[in-house]
Each structure stands twice: as C-alpha cells, then as structure tokens.
Specification:
Oligomer: heterodimer
Structural class of chain B: alpha/beta
Radius of gyration of chain B: 17 Å
CATH class of the domain at 43-69 and 95-233 in chain B: Alpha Beta
Helix content of chain B: 25-40%
Order of helices and strands of chain A: HHEEHEEEHHEHEEEHEEHEHHHHHH
Number of domains of chain A: 2
Low-confidence stretches of chain B: 1-10
CATH topology of the domain at 43-69 and 95-233 in chain B: Rossmann fold
Strand content of chain A: 15-25%
Shape of chain A: elongated
Strand order of the largest sheet of chain A: 4-5-9-6-8-7
Mean pLDDT of chain A: 88
CATH architecture of the domain at 43-69 and 95-233 in chain B: 3-Layer(aba) Sandwich
Strand order of the largest sheet of chain B: 6-7-8-3-9-10
Distance between the termini of chain A: 29 Å
Strand content of chain B: 25-35%
Number of helices of chain B: 7
Number of strands of chain A: 12
Shape of chain B: globular
Helix content of chain A: 40-55%
Distance between the termini of chain B: 42 Å
Radius of gyration of chain A: 29 Å
Chain lengths: 380, 238
C-alpha cells in the first residue's frame, strides 16, 4: 500500500496515454462480458436438456414435418416409455417483432415427458380440459403481466385458420415453474383442427426412455422404422438436438472464443507497449530508485503492479458495465432465453485480467530489473 | 536525525579502501579505471575529489555508494566489507547507510518534494506518521520545507537540489555522496548548497564525499584529493 502513490503517480505521468489504454482494456472486457452472455444464451439450453429424452425430427430439417400417426409406431419401440409431440406456433402477442416461444403440444402426454416443468395439479387439470387453454412459463407471465384466467388473442406468423385469420383466442390455465421458463404451450388439437394447412403433421416427437443407455439403440430403431418413407426421421438425444440447433446458428462458442482471444491478444500488445514506453521514458528514475536502495525485485514488482493496475482498473469497470449491458439487452430480447453474463464468465474475466496484466508487464519489469544503476545514471 | 560529530583525528576511519581496483571490459580491451587505491575516510570528514573527466572520480563514488562493485580489493564501511556483497545485499545496505546527491538532482517529476524525500523511507518499517515527521525534519534542515507540496517542475535548480539533499539525509545515512552537487547551478545557488553541505558536516557530523570540477566548491571541504588516471594524490597533476 505504501508504494501505491508512487505507482499511481507513474501511471498518471502521461494521462492521455493512460486514459486511452484504460479505455482499450475497458472496451475489451465489456465486450468479453457481453459475448459471454451471447454464448450463455445459445448454449444455456443444453444445460436444461434431459439425458432421458430423445428428440425425433424430420431428417431433412426442422421446418419439415412428420405425420402424427408416427407416434403410435414409435411408442412400440422397446425402451420408449412415453411419447409426446409438439408443433412450432410462431406465436406472438400484438407485436410480431416480440415473438413468444410457443408450441402446440399434446396436452395428455406433454407434462409426463417434460417432468422438469412443474405445474400445480389443479392448473394442469384445468389446462387438459380446456381446449383453448395455455400453459405459460414464469418468464412469459412476468413479461406480459398475465395471470391465471386471462384471455388474450395469440397470433401466429406461420399459421392461418380456415377463414384466413392468424389469431387464436386462448386462456391462461396454468403457470409452470422450472424447465425453459419462456414458453407458451397450447393444445395441438386446437391448433391443428383450426389451421388451414399441414394438418395431422407435427414438427417434433419427444420420447422418454427408460435409461440413457438405451438412447443409441432406440434412436437407431426409430430411424430404421421410417427409412424410405416420405418423412424419414432423425432421432437424437435432447442435448445433441439443442447443441445441433445452436450449431445451425453458427458455432457461437467458437466465434465468441475467437473474438475474445483476438481482442485480448490485442490488449496484451497495447498494454505491453504502454508499459515498455513508460519504462523507456524513466530509465534514470528507476536507476535513482535502485541507488536509493530499492531492490531489483522491488523495482520489478512495482512495474508489474502498474501493469496490473491498468488492467484491473479498465477490466473491472468493463466487466461490470458489460454485465449490466447484457442484462439490459436480455430484457429487450425476451425471446432469447437466459441472456446474461454468468458468474463463471466474470470469474474468468478477472483471471484473464490478472494474466494479461502480468504478461504485459513481464518484459518491462525484466528490463527494469536488469537496469545497471551506474550505467543508467551516466546516460541520464 | 543528528549523529554526534566525532573528531576525525581520534576516530576509526568510517571508510577504508584497501587495494581497490576497478576494470572495465571495452570490447577486447581492459580499461583499468581505478588502480590499487588505498584510502581512509574518517567519520565526520568532508572530502572533495577533483580531477579531469574520465579520471575515475565518479567510479570511486559509485563504489563507495555500493552501486558498483570493485574488481579487486577490500572496501570497508563502518567495519563491514561490502566489496563482495551480492546485488540485493548491496541494495539493502545502500538504503540504510548511504545518501546520494546528484548533479542533475534526479527527483521523480511525478512526485511532490515531500513524496520525493519520503522515497528512501518507504524501504523502512516506519509508519506513515513517522515517515511524515522525518520528511518534515529533513526538508526543514535543507531549508526547503515551504516548498514541500511542490513538484520538481515548480522549483528552481537550487530548490531542487535542496530537495535532493533532504532526500539524501532523510534516512540518517552514515555517508553522504555528492556527485557534482553544484555543477548545474549558478554561483549563488551553488554557494547556498555548499553552505548547506558544510552545515550538515559541521553541525550534524555527516561524513561527505563530494566529486567536483569546481575549485571554489572543493575549497569548502575539509580536505581535497585529486584523482588522475585511476590514482589518488594530495596534489593536482601538473
């Protein structure tokens, strides 16, 4: 602590240079926090995936459908304990730019397969009985202020009913907890009976299997069952499906890692350059400190401390603002689940800051330590 | 702060140089900068070292201050041979026993006068309040306490050198080593600095070794030695 005024004074020797360096570090770590939130948003779903669930989709792609009668045949495969299905609704309320993750689901089987979604039994029963009823996640309820019994017109940007309308009147029968909290679940039958096209087709089957060991054999048997049919299937674990879905949007993890690595490497060069310039400018001062009795180690540590201080000052504020921005962005993108900077990313950020500060200061510190007092004073 | 003055004739020498040699390697050539020097510097002495440029004055001062090491010989300061000290031992020793006054003052421009003076005390275990007390005392002794909060760029050359002297004496060193302390000052400011050094020697009993080209400055010392081609003599080279 007693050296802090000296370290701070040295840092402030060239204010403009220091401020620019601080700003560079600040922006780099702000970006790091925001990109960490992006990565979290795209991979967070993987953590919610259940190893006991398999997803069956059309082999060609998610947009293509499968006949609903596949369900009966799939249910006969040994190892499948439950089956349900769901259809993408393309739902929104009032503003088409604010989509809701909505599915038409089979009300009788859905909650059995998705046992991570907790619904009070009376609400679940009410929903099963009410053809126009919907279950909504806590996040959706909070976002729109919807309560049990609320009626609202749900619109779809995909489906039209037989009269050409895109509106389905629904009632909130239940609010579920756990699982992905941003979904709206309407009756598949309500959607399918009223929509004008693609009837008796679904986008996805979900299977509950007795144990994760059966995943490979069940998947193989299901896919073999529909080989050479009009709608061949692709069966995978829910985790693999979510990862594959994220991969369709690009390998976000790799992109984020690439950007962050490039930015942090640039930062390393910026800080190292600042420190090297700073040391070159004060060779005689460092020599005087050594003449006064400061040890090689002491002088080296002081240079390292300067480098760490620049990185920590810019980095901590950058991380905090980045995390705050991620929260702000997340609240504006309600259809993106879990858009926030996770604590793990903040911890990694602090670790990177320390590494960056040490690496950037290492060479200048070594130069300061090697400085020969007599020679440096002669040159001054 | 003050150390009682000791009569030079009765005291054991504070510094003893015995067969000190210093060689530098310049390419394939070995330059013999100091050649088998023997010298005693009593406690309370004020010794002026004169001689032409390149004669080895500053090299000798650096050896006395422990910022360079001799190639050969014994260098006893207060009974301790520092010739074979390692770098970190020498740094510790310098912090405790030596004060440097430089021709170009070498104050840290980013620090105020009092922060500059405080620097040697950062290496001690003193508390902040004790450091502050000692800094004030040193600044007062150097007659520059009124400029304590000023940065070096806000001071005249003479004032900067006073701060430099305050920094040199703040740790109450055994030995004060001055390398051309008036070399960058006008005559009036130079005289004031010499008055201060004389007072430190006479009233505080500080042992001072001063390198100078200026006979006027050297005349203020108790004795003058001349250095020529790495050898010491009591007479200047004719």
């Amino acid at each position: 602590m007693r050296y802090l005024p000296l370290i701070w004074a040295n840092l402030m020797r060239r204010k403009v240079r220091t401020i620019f360096t601080l700003l560079s570090v600040f922006i780099a770590f702000m970006l790091f926090a925001v990109l960490g939130a992006v990565d979290q948003a795209f991979t967070g779903g993987v953590q919610l995936a259940d190893a006991n669930r398999l997803v069956v989709t059309n082999k060609i792609g998610l947009i293509n459908s499968m006949p609903i009668n596949y369900a009966d045949r799939i249910a006969t495969v040994p190892g499948v304990s439950q089956i349900t299905w769901q259809e993408w609704v393309g739902a929104y309320f009032q503003d088409p730019h604010q989509p809701i993750t909505g599915f038409g689901v089979d009300e009788n089987t859905f909650l059995g397969v998705h046992d991570d979604m907790q619904v009070p039994p009376e609400q679940a029963q009410a929903w099963v009985k009410d053809r126009q009823g919907v279950l909504i996640g806590e996040a959706v309820a909070k976002r729109y202020g919807w309560k049990l019994g609320d009626h609202f017109p749900l619109r779809s940007n995909i489906w039209r009913d037989k009269q050409g309308n895109s509106t389905w009147d629904v009632t909130v029968d239940g609010i579920y907890h756990g699982g992905p909290g941003d979904q709206l679940l309407m009756h598949y039958k309500y959607l399918d009976d009223t929509r004008a096209f693609r009837n008796n087709q679904v986008g996805m089957f979900l299977l509950k299997i007795a144990s994760p060991d059966k995943a490979a054999s069940v998947s193989e048997q299901v896919d073999q069952m529909f080989t050479n049919s009009d709608a061949e299937t692709k069966t995978s674990t829910e985790k693999a499906f979510v990862q594959g879905f994220a991969a369709m949007l690009g390998n976000i993890g790799k992109i984020v890692t690439g950007i962050v690595t490039a930015v942090l490497f640039s930062m390393l060069l910026v800080i190292a350059n600042t420190m090297a310039q700073s040391i070159r400018e004060r060779v005689s001062e460092l020599a005087v400190l050594k003449a006064l009795g400061f040890s090689r180690r002491g002088v080296g540590l002081m240079v390292l401390a300067e480098s760490l201080l620049v990185t920590a000052l810019g980095g901590v504020f950058g991380l905090l603002l980045g995390a705050g921005m991620a929260n702000g962005i997340g609240s504006k993108l309600p259809f993106v689940q879990d858009f926030h900077t996770p604590p793990k990313i903040l911890a990694i950020g602090i670790l990177l800051m320390a590494m960056l500060g040490l690496l950037a200061g290492l060479l200048p510190a070594a130069q300061a330590m090697r400085l020969q007092v007599a020679a440096a004073l002669r040159r001054a | 702060m003050s150390r009682p003055a000791i009569k030079t004739e009765a005291a054991t020498p504070l510094v003893q140089l015995q067969g000190i040699r210093k060689d530098y390697q310049r390419g394939s050539e070995t330059v013999h900068v100091l050649q088998a020097l023997d010298l005693d510097i009593p406690r309370g002495d004020f010794l002026a070292l004169m001689g032409p440029s390149g004669s080895g004055k500053t090299t000798l001062l650096n050896l006395l201050g422990g910022i360079d090491r001799p190639s050969e010989g014994r260098l006893l300061v207060d009974g301790t041979d520092i010739a074979n000290y390692g770098e970190s031992d020498l740094a510790r020793w310098r912090a405790r026993h030596v004060g440097f006054v430089f021709q170009l003052y070498h104050l840290l421009p980013v620090l105020s006068a009092e922060r500059n003076v405080e620097l040697p005390l950062l290496l001690t275990g003193l508390t902040a309040s004790e450091r502050k007390r000692r800094v004030q005392a040193a600044l007062s002794l150097a007659n520059i306490a009124d400029r304590a909060k000023h940065k070096p760029s806000e001071l005249s050359g003479g004032q900067e050198q006073r701060v430099g002297i305050a920094r040199a004496i703040v740790g109450d060193p055994l030995l004060l080593l001055c390398d051309e302390p008036t070399g960058d000052l006008d005559r009036k400011s130079g005289d004031e600095i010499l008055d201060l050094l004389q007072a430190l020697n006479r009233e505080q009993g500080k042992t001072i070794v001063m390198v100078t080209h200026d006979p006027h400055a050297a005349a203020r010392a108790r004795r003058i030695l001349y250095m020529n081609k790495g050898k010491l003599s009591t007479e200047p080279e004719r």
